[in-house]
Amino acid sequence: MLHLAICDDDGRTLDYLAGETADWAKAEGEACCVERYVSADAFLFAWEERKDTDILLLDIEMPGTNGMVLARRLKQLGNPVSIIFVTGNPEFALEGYDLEAVSYLLKPVKRERLWAALSRAGERVRDRAAILAPLTAGEVEKVYVSDICCLESRGHDCILWRRDGRELACKTGIQQLEQELKECADSFFKPHRSYSVNLEHVERIGKKEIRMDNGMEVPIARGKWEELNRAYVEYFRRQSF
Predict the structure, then answer these.
(1) Which residues have CB under 8 Å from 141's CB, separation 6+?
(2) Residue 137's Cα: distance from chain center in Å?
(3) Which phi-psi region, left, alpha or beta, contains residue 10 (left: φ > 0; alpha: ψ -120 to 50)?
(4) Among 74, 90, 115, 135, which is most exposed with the fewest C-beta within 10 angstroms?
């Protein structure tokens, strides 16, 4: 199911976009839920609790925190939400695309342009592989593979380190999570019996440790250095094709 959010301080725009989004989902045969927010601050407050938004239709000029500030904040936090800017002001277009927005739509929004943007956003979401991480607190959290920096074995549990530096304590062992990741990604390598790293987030390979782009340093077991380097080079060669 797709989780969509609409953030706009104008009630009529919220109603229109919600209706069009529901019609698009029905036409696409896509199960989705839609939530409405009248400010960027209201959206951010809800997002910090759940972090489950896949697509965000976002106005730019709103009281309080504006849409550009919110988009930059989400990008800094490593959130993969697909943003569609919906605004009456064309002056922000270049900045919007710099933030890797799916589309930049000017009000009044035409149905065909909105539906096309939603379809592109939906494709982007489906291209993001994810796993369900069972947490030690008894909860489950969806984690996008591209957000996982590395796994660390800690006793019978496994610590999932995200690229923003946050950690999730999972009640399953590292081997089970490695198997799940292997089924949806080819970017993980085990340089040490207690760690598995996402090669996408390796910043530097030293002789004894790996520096990840979230600041972590992961040890390299004896005899693993050459294999690690080969895997790293092969991974990036695959990305270039």
Answers:
(1) 51, 132, 133, 135, 168
(2) 22
(3) beta
(4) 90
* Contact in structure between 196 and 229 (CB atoms under 8 Å): no
First to last CA, the chain: 31
| CA nearest neighbour of 10 among 45, 58, 46 | 58
Closest CA to 2 of 93, 124, 85, 102: 124
Q: Both tokens of residue 206? A: 């030293």
pLDDT > 90? residue 223: yes
Query: How far apart, in whole angstroms, are the C-alpha atoms of residue 14 and residue 20?
Result: 10
pLDDT by residue (tens digit) across 57-94? 999 999 999 999 999 888 877 667 899 999 888 777 66
Please give, one letter per residue, the 3-state secondary structure of 107-157.
Answer: CCCCHHHHHHHHHHHHHHHHCCCEEEEEECCCCEEEEEHHHEEEEEEECCE
Cβ-Cβ contacts under 8 Å for 1 (sequence gap 6 or more): 31, 32, 33
One-character DSSP codes across 203-214: EEE-SSEEEETT
Amino acid (one-letter) located at 157: D
Strand ordering across the sheet containing 202-205: 202-205, 209-212, 217-219
* Burial class of residue 149, CB neighbours in 10 A (0-12, 13-18, 19+): buried
**Host H or E run for residue 200:** none
